[in-house]
Amino acid sequence: MPLSLLQQVPYFAPEDIAALEMLWQKRVHLRRHDFLTRQGQVEQNLYFVASGALRIYYPLPDEEICVGFAYPNTLVVSFPSFVAGKPSDYYIQALRKSELLGISKNDFMQLMEERPHIRRFWYEQLEKALVGKIEREVDLLLPEPAQRLQRVMQRSPHLFQHIPKKYIASYLRMSPETLSRLK
Question: What mean pLDDT comes out for the span 89-111?
Answer without folding.
Answer: 96
